[in-house]
Amino acid sequence: MPENTRLTRMLEPWRGAPESDVVPTDVDVHHRRKGAAGLEAVAVSMNRGIAQMGPARTLNTLRRLNQADGFDCMGCAWPDPDPEHRSFAEFCENGAKAVAEEATKRRADPGFFARHAVSELATWSDFQLGQQGRITEPMLLREGGTHYEPVTWGEAFGIVAEEMQALASPDEAVLYTSGRASNEAAFVFQLFARAFGTNNLPDCSNMCHESTSVALAETIGIGKGSVSLEDVHEAELVIIAGQNPGTNHPRMLSALEKCVKGGGKIVAVNPLPETGLMKFDNPQTLKGLTGVGTDLADEFLPIRLGGDLALFQALGALLVERGAVDQDFVDRYTTGFETYKRHVQDLDWDLVLRATGLERSQIERVADLLAGSSKTVFCWAMGVTQQKHAVSTIKEITNVALLQGNIGKPGAGLCPVRGHSNVQGDRTMGIWEKLPAHFAEQLRLEFGFTPPKERGHDVVNSIRALQENRVKVLIGLGGNLAAATPDSELVHEVIRSVSLGVQVSTKLNRTHVLPGRRMLILPCLGRTEKDITAEGWQGLTVEDSMSQVHLSVGRNQPAGPMLRGEPWIVCRMAEAVLGDGPEGSSIDWAVMAEDYTRIRHHIGHVVPGCDAYDEKVQRPGGFTLPHPPRDSRVFETASGKAEISSVPIELLEAPEGHLVLQTLRSHDQFNTTIYGHDDRYRGLAGGRNVVMVHPDDITALGLRENELYDVVSEWVDGSERVAHGFRVVSYPTARGCAAAYYPECNVLVPLDHVADASNCPVSKGVVVRFEPLGSCGRIDCDPESRVRSGSDQGNRSDVEPHHLS
Known about the structure:
This protein is an alpha/beta fold. The protein has 32 helices and 37 strands. A 6-stranded mixed sheet has the order 6-5-18-17-16-7. A 6-stranded mixed β-barrel has the order 26-34-31-33-32-35. The protein has a 5-stranded parallel sheet with strand order 12-9-8-14-15, sandwiched between helices. Helix 2 crosses helix 3, helix 2 (about 40-55) runs parallel beside helix 4 (about 95-100) and helix 8 crosses helix 27. The model is unreliable at about 1-15, about 20-25 and about 780-805 (pLDDT under 50).
């Protein structure tokens, strides 16, 4: 389709999906974009905003997005520049889409729920559910009911109290958190769980960067990245692995552009040639608007899935071989180097090339860039963290950084790019199933009760507990657990098994239409909206990927008079369940519900690095949390030094007739929220049931391009999982690999297919084959037939793909 025709279509009014719309299923395959953003991104941003919010609301809302006196984007966690250096339009296309979805004028009011039975809503797509607009009142699906009905806040909290007080054990409750929750909401949510008596606090980090948290804590003593935004600007070299910034963190492109214009170089490591890694047409410059943008990646390594571990070990071996090691840093600040040196001297290059699918000359060129750089930043995201051997891979990335002293100096460091706005802040505030002893002690001193010591459930173990009927109440603070998790059919079944489901939400999603005996939807304010309580106008705080904490204040009128802020909802729910708290404690739920300053005072007393918290976040731009490796090259590990690790290379290969599949986002979605059906940068539009396969693999497997197939994943226990009716399209991904969208392909990933040491679901290493359409059961078959198992539905701990050492 000609570019000007597509741009014209982008400028046309975009209606979204009202109730009667049919979601498109055909796929329009066109040319991949050569550059990210540009005029088309501006057109799409304005078009989506006006369609959802209207012209005036679009202008007034977007101009406050990511500004020091405005509200923080509810999308990705990329940091903001200093207030004095922020643009008048400090947002990206996908941020504008996220705001449009939240600040929409559409409403899912009680009349909507009266018109549509839950059984009907369950047949709608995720896109259709999300496009119905904001939920305006607390809604209850009663036992045996067919429709959600409006209830008062008091009745809703009474139902939660009734169910939770009747549990045989506090551990029969699970409290799940999404990364979009504020620090205040996250803090009182974990306080509620621990005062109730459980550490069952799974969160979305368990499914994305948990591998990062584990690996970095073991190697540098803190599970967070060590860079600032200025470090990316000043770097001489930036290596980006398993990340698609043009779609998932678009504002990162501005930082990369600044790096390139300052003389820095970029290496992109990814199975797919993502547009946002290649060229950036900055829409805030005349050149960018006219398509004369900035070339980004100097080297692109089309690595095979699972090959990153081998790549970074090879790079480390070449640095050691060439003497390109900061020996003073290694001697003073690290341990394990001599063992590592012996380990990489025996590097099996045949295994490296087999694992990565690269030429040795490509790896050598990147080693040359590393050796010539005195300041290198290493970035990675879920393309790395959701591998089977993700923890070892991140340790290997850390090794390469440590070899050259690239931690604790300007322009260098480790940069895990978090995918959701406040997912890092959630963990800082105590959302973690493994309660640290020092945090528990501070809770005891502040609130007068002893928190539980037993390890709680992460996401995967929460689903296991649900499956085994050990959980009766499931509370979600935001998020969409049903669509975010692996093993979709199993997860949907077990969510339906609870006595009570509670979802604190702004809009409809898949979890809402999978009710247990009773289900409550508690509608909350969004970040764009004013949060005014009895004590006045409230602000919230968030933490970005680089440990910067700042204030976020909504300015729009709420979508309905019944809406309340997340901290208010959590505090009032806790008050209904616990009263003043456990015996001997004193928790001021009612005060915190009305005055978020009081929550921030408690945060300042409990959370490490947050002293004088309320005062610090009032400063324009907020403050930066301490990070010992970055700040003073102090490594709080068992040895007191940074740990250089020696790990074996792991090889992921598919048997003949199979491919290794990864799931990923479209450009028209954020996590499980589907904005539309145009994956513009990849040249795919109109439908989401698509599998991207290298043209040579299409030929070798005897497939027909643009034909529909059933995609089948295989596991060594004999189980199989089927995704029905996916169109095979030609795409230049790495040979032997394929890519498809989530959540549609989550059904192919067993619950127990998790990363070693982190328990993070492995969505970047699924061995699949293709079968003729319908040969694995009718497309409209009963969901139970989608899992075909040898003995036990595939939910065993020994489920593994084809891995070889």
